[in-house]
Amino acid sequence: LPLEKGAEATALPDLFFNALHGAGGEDGQIQGYLELLHRPYTGAGLLAMAAGMDKWITKRLWESEGLPVVPYVGLTEERWNRERAACLTECAKLGLPLFVKPANLGSSIGVEKVKQAESLAAALDRAFTFDRRVLVEQGLDIREIEVAVLGGDEPLVSQPGEVIVADEFYTFEDKYLHGKSRTEIPAQIPEELTDLIRKLAARAFAASDGYGMARVDFFLERLTGRVFLNELNFIPGFTSISMYPKMMAASGVPYGELLTRLIDLARARHAQMAAKQKGFQSGSTWFQESKQAR
């Protein structure tokens, strides 16, 4: 990339395949840069990436579409520092247990399960060391169900898979260090529930201006059978053993074909946007008059 003096003469690739997770790669920053370079890239655009990375904004988007989300309270660091007691009272209305999450991190970094009211303030203090915006969510007894989405306005939604969690929730340590949890594809759930989850995933993808790919994560409440959207990941794990490609393969799209489709989607979106008008004719001649006056 032309970031250093002299590098601007280097020929750019025809297309960028984005496999950058988290900050920089999955929050709109690299997408904005590649837009400035006028190069196609895989995955969603700047708007979707920025909104999808922020769990609080994602929930607000989904709520505006009438999609089911876990009851929550969103807090800014400024408000927390100004009115701690009021924030704690508001969060207490959700009941116990609670989950405290930084709004703009992934991989369960900074996430804590709070079982006692007196532990909440300290958990919030720790969460605010990661981000200036934090979510407090109602803790539910749930199964974790995921689907993979591929496409644009009419995307393909995979068969669901399930993360069978070993600990109290799917922690960073379990995901990347201990590996005690396991996955099951397809998820062992009734057909009508599968249909509901796939429809909700497509709606959630569209509400977030999704494009290219995403993994949409759900909570299935054990006691009631209610389904809640948890979050959306626009750059999911992409190794051959990751959930996203495994769910796509189980739905008839093997790894090689998946790569090809993502590249084709990137080219199609780039061509679509390149054809758009980037300016307009105002009819004004002020610049000519200014030139004549000089």
In short:
The protein has 11 helices and 10 strands. By secondary structure, the chain is of the alpha+beta class.
Gap from first CA to last CA? 42 Å
Low-pLDDT stretches are none
Number of helices: 11
Q: Mean pLDDT, nearest integer? A: 90
Gross geometry = globular
Return the structural class: alpha+beta
Order of secondary-structure elements: HHHEHHEEHEEEEHEHEEHHH
> How much helix, percentage-wise, in residues?
25-40%
The largest β sheet comes out as: 6 strands, antiparallel
Strand content: 15-25%
Strand count? 10
Radius of gyration: 22 Å
Describe how the helices and strands are arranged.
Blueprint: H1 29-36, H2 46-53, H3 55-64, E1 72-76, H4 77-82, H5 84-92, E2 98-102, E3 112-114, H6 120-127, E4 133-138, E5 142-151, E6 156-157, E7 161-164, H7 172-178, E8 182-184, H8 191-207, E9 212-221, E10 227-233, H9 243-250, H10 255-274, H11 286-293
Antiparallel strand pairs: 1-4, 2-3, 2-4, 5-6, 5-7, 5-9, 7-8, 9-10
Describe this structure in words.
This protein is an alpha+beta fold and 294 residues long. It contains 11 helices and 10 strands. The strands form 2 sheets. Strands 5, 6, 7, 8, 9 and 10 form a 6-stranded antiparallel sheet that branches. A 4-stranded antiparallel sheet has the order 1-4-2-3. It is globular, with a radius of gyration of 22 Å.
Features:
6-stranded antiparallel β-sheet, alpha+beta, 19% strand, 294 residues
